[in-house]
Amino acid sequence: MIRVSVQREAFDIAAETLALEAAGVGAVATFTGIVRGDDGVTAIELEHYPGMTEASLNDICAIAQERWGLTGCTIIHRVGRMKVGEPIVLVVTASPHRAAALEACAFLIDRLKTDAPFWKREYRGDVAQWVEQKTSDVERGQSWDG
Amino acid sequence: MIRVSVQREAFDIAAETLALEAAGVGAVATFTGIVRGDDGVTAIELEHYPGMTEASLNDICAIAQERWGLTGCTIIHRVGRMKVGEPIVLVVTASPHRAAALEACAFLIDRLKTDAPFWKREYRGDVAQWVEQKTSDVERGQSWDG
Amino acid sequence: MKLVYFARVREAMGSDGEEMEFPASVLTVGDAIDWLAAQSPRHAEAFADRSKLRFALDQRMVKFDAPVTGATEFAIFPPVTGG
Amino acid sequence: MKLVYFARVREAMGSDGEEMEFPASVLTVGDAIDWLAAQSPRHAEAFADRSKLRFALDQRMVKFDAPVTGATEFAIFPPVTGG
Questions:
Q1: Strand A27-34 and strand B27-34: pairing?
Q2: Which residues on A lie below 8 Å from B22 (Cβ)?
């Protein structure tokens, strides 16, 4: 079961984990990314490529489901403007085995950061600045290859 | 911030993640263990060692907090009788960095399985049977050493 | 071909896309960028730093050496920064 | 010393614990188990398979070679199976 959503609204972690628990598995892992207030950041804004975003999130879910034998996999990514402390992204994985659920969750968030067409702008008050891709994110994304 | 609870009641994953998000970090990971209906299991019952259980959960939280620089760490473990599909245990970790949150979450659930004094009995209808410790759990718990 | 621009590229171009017919000499993504950069000073500046450009053909990520022929939608954007 | 039993050990003993004074010859957890196993057929059976026993002294996990002297509470139980 794969569920992917790109939305402006906040998400409901309880509802999303419950939906995957309903499959009767043993282990559910989640990852939530939250806007950090580093270096004076007050808000962020996320732009995306409608259509391609959903397709790329579906692709990485399908890869994870196959590789770790997941019974369910959910990615919800918000777009638009979010303040410090607001959630940006939720990844949920379900599997009979805990290591599979946790590893797949790490894979999904790592790959999302290199494969999914989102672009983040940081606001410091009224001043906006595009975020540069981190080399560490690229390396982490590639570390799952082969 | 460490929070440990051993309780009969179910837990609220949304409230628990929100509590750790409030610290203003970038990443929150969770692990939920759920009763599996393998081999005709209909329910489980968990016994524990009051006092020592809480102390040992606090200990592994403190180790994780130190090792991964967590800003928060929560373990809620239920005791008593639970039916198939019910949640047993919740681990929540918060950190500025996603890899730290996810790794610490894996560490905590692995170590909990070898260090915390819980004993699980499986029910198949009215027939109860103590669960044997798995060698794979012991090895996984030890894999974090050194 | 339908060109679409995102994020910093969109801002540099002052537009979220345009229709463009490439000449027959344009075979790959790399050729297309070379050709586009020669169309106007604005294109030249937007596509100046190749290391900061990524591409999708019909919504699939591709590299410089991918053939553009036959594609309907060609997206040009900076490295992605979601999550 | 206060002995406490859990899970299968509690069931085998038919009790969740008992008060016991060890003789001076009992120095370690291993000595204590040897001595306890000689107290009754029920003790003998409950403590027969040492590989299936784990111990805590004053609520800290310990091994067979840990000294029991000075401890207040001595817990005997099977390998743990939580999570």
A1: antiparallel
A2: 85
Q: What are phi and psi of C6, to 5 degrees?
A: -130, 155
- The pTM assigned to this predicted structure is 0.94
Q: pLDDT > 90: what percent of chain C?
A: 100
Q: Which two tokens stand for residue C38?
A: 């020669």
Which CATH code of 3.30.230.70, 3.90.1170.40, 3.20.20.70, 1.10.8.80 fits the domain covering B2-138? Answer: 3.90.1170.40
pLDDT digits (tens, 9 = 90+) for B54-96: 999 999 999 999 999 999 999 999 999 999 999 999 999 999 9
Q: Which chain A residues are closer than 8 Å to B12 by Cβ?
A: 14
Q: What is the distance in angstroms between the Cα of B111 and the nearest Cα belonging to chain A?
A: 13
Which residues lie below 8 Å from residue D24, measured CB to CB, with a gap of 6+?
none
Which residue in chain B is spatially nearest to A24 when comparing CA positions?
Answer: B85
Residue C6 is part of which domain span?
A: 1-15+48-83
Dig out the tokens for B11 from the structure: 């837990």
A64 contact partners, CB below 8 Å, separation of at least 6: A70, A73, A93, A104, A107, A108
pLDDT digits (tens, 9 = 90+) for A83-116: 999 999 999 999 999 999 999 999 999 999 999 9
Q: How many residues does chain B have?
A: 146
List the one residue out of A36, A48, A59, A51 whose CA is nearest residue A122.
A36
Total domains in the fold of chain D:
1
